[in-house]
Structures are given as C-alpha cells and as structure tokens.
Amino acid sequence: MVKKNSCVFISGTGTNLRALIQNSRRYNFPISIKLIISNKKKAKGVNLAKRYSIPYIIINTKKINYENKLIQVLNNKNISIICLAGYMKILSKYFIKNFNGKIINIHPSLLPKYKGTNTFTRILKNKEKKAGCTVHYVNEKLDSGKIILKKSFELSKNENINTLKKKTQRLEYKAFSEAITKIFM
Ligand code: GRF
Prior knowledge:
Blueprint: E1 4-10, H1 15-24, E2 31-38, H2 45-51, E3 56-58, H3 66-76, E4 81-84, H4 93-98, E5 103-107, H5 119-125, E6 130-137, E7 147-154, H6 161-184
The protein binds 5-O-phosphono-beta-D-ribofuranosylamine.
C-alpha cells in the first residue's frame, strides 16, 4: 500500500498524536506521519516526535507570514492530509483554502453540540445523557465542517470532568484513526 503523507498539528499532551503514530505504523493504515507541527515549544507531544524520530517544527504564530512558510513546507513534503490533534489555534481562511478538504479535526463532543472550548463542563451542566467525540473536516467556521464520523457513550450518574474526559479521549483514539481509514479506503 502506498501511504499518503500526513502532518499532525498539536498544542498539548499529544495522546491523540500517540495513537495516530502507533496506528500509522501498521502496514495497512493509509497514512504515514511525515511531520509534526506544534505552536507550543513545551507541548508534551513534541517529545513523541523525538521518541519516534518524526521531523517536527515549532511555529511562532505571532510572526507575520508564518502560514506562508508553513504552506511551503507542507507542499514540499507533499502532505495530503493535515490532522489537528488538540491544536488550539485558529487557522486562517487563507490557510484552510490552501488545503481545502485536506484538514481534519477531532473534537470532544457530539457535534454540532458544544462547539468551542470547555465542552466537558457544559455537557455536565446540561445533564446530557450522551457524550462522545467527532472527527470532521475543517472549514472557516469553528467546529462546523462536514462530519466524517462520531462515536458516543452514555454518561453514568456520577460522571465528573475527569471521568468524562477519560472516556471521551479513549474513544477519540479509535475515532481519529477510523475516520482516516474511512477517508482513504
Ligand atoms: C482532545 O481531547 C481533542 O478532542 C481536543 O483536544 C484534546 C487533545 O488532547 N481537540 P491530546 O493532546 O491529544 O492528549
């Protein structure tokens, strides 16, 4: 199988990145991770890049023109899919247009419900019966692009932020890879 070149964007712990790296090493997984981008120098996920010997770049989003340079790098590496795995910066319309239909994101709620941040607090406050995660294409509107897949579970009576986060993230690790397989197979 000829794998597609991919790049993963992170800002934090990188547990989704880890799941993607591990799955991408399977012979029948459709992508290979050629580059990791972090907007945080100290993001834990950067250590995964080092551990697995995957090239990485720390970007400074305050610099004018950083996106143009990034686009160049991604084009040079022939990246055909960008996975946002806990990337906490908004990408410009210009950047998104450049990779139209090639950027996907994982979000810790059942979209279209609970777009944006603090999803777990809001889910608990509203006493939702179901929670889960969504993998979707990225467009100019926050958490609003076409949905690729969702995975859900029922909340238990004594759910708290920690348990909710744990359960959601466990599902995310499967959902992200399944969505990628769905796109390319
Ligand atoms: C995930 O829960 C994802 O849904 C959200 O950010 C979190 C990133 O976690 N977009 P990690 O860095 O992959 O551990």
